Amino acid sequence: MKVNEDTFPDPVPAQDGVEDRRQRKARQTRNALAAAALDLILERGLADVTVGAVADRADVTRRTFSRHFVGKEDAALDFVRGDGDRINALLRARPADEPPLLAYRRAVADWLADRQNPASHIRPRMRALLALVDTEPALFAAYERIRVDAQEESIRIIADRLAVDDVRDLRPAVVVDAAAGVLTAALRAWARGIQADHSDADPDADPGERRDAHPGERRDAHPGDRPEDHHDPDAVDLAALVEQAYDALMGEAALAASHRATPVSGK
């Protein structure tokens, strides 16, 4: 059975040349292994999948598997690592004068809105895998390791933007933990099938349009897209859930700020 490597987007090559071709081949092998692990885990269940089965499905040796991944869980969740890298790259590219929390929010929005290299989370079967993360301790542990690695890099990026020491100054960690926590909450809700609240949406809007990262903007579906190949038909709800989650965070922060100076009676 051929693995569905289209689940994982190919990276954009930096330059042409022998080195890049070698890197591209390695990425194709890694993608094949990741897709094989995802397929098998969803088909058989985590407990009934071995590293050997993943390697066989991808038509490579176990030694090749070990050069790319430490285990089947790590392989199946490789898209989480890739998307974390992309969010961080977009975060680095945000305008220097943009407040850190807003910069992270817009980086996430740009990631979800990118049609040239679609976020792996919105591709077919990812929703089912994310739902499985909550029920399989080994998958959850692998997911948390990958998520923490990405957030540590985000903290360094925010610290550079603020020109502060990320160890001595709490702001970078606070911003990233809050912003990434919002994204995690939205992803978990989406994986459980919770729908976004569209009560403020235009009832006459074309269902092919999607709400994007920056409030008030919309993006039309690409006419050449094939939903069955490129993205989950409920992907629009993920983007909307993320926006609503960030709105909830900002609302709670504003409410807390309005009460922070209230004196405690008897003190």
- How much of the sequence is in beta strands? under 5%
Question: How much is the average pLDDT?
Answer: 80
Q: Give start-end ranges of low-pLDDT stretches.
A: 9-17, 201-230
Q: What is the helix/strand order?
A: HHHHHHHHHEEHH
Which structural category do the helix and sheet elements fall into? Answer: mainly alpha
Largest sheet descriptor: 2 strands, antiparallel
Secondary structure: number of strands: 2
Helix content: 55-70%
Described by the principal axes of the CA atoms, the overall outline is: globular
Number of helices: 11
The value of Rg in angstroms is 20 Å
Q: Could you give the distance between the termini?
A: 71 Å
Largest sheet, order of strands side by side? 1-2
Protein architecture, described:
There is one protein chain. By secondary structure, the chain is mainly alpha-helical. 60% of the residues lie in helices and 1% in strands. The chain has 11 helices and 2 strands, in the order αααααααααββαα. The protein has helices spanning 18-44, 51-58, 62-68, 72-76, 78-92, 100-113, 126-133, 137-162, 171-191, 227-230, 235-259; strands at 210-211, 218-219. It has a two-stranded antiparallel sheet. A hairpin with a 6-residue loop joins strand 1 (210-211) and strand 2 (218-219). Helix 9 packs across helix 11 (235-259). It is globular, with a radius of gyration of 20 Å. It starts with 17 loop residues before the first helix and ends in an 8-residue tail after the last helix. The model is unreliable at 9-17 and 201-230 (pLDDT under 50).
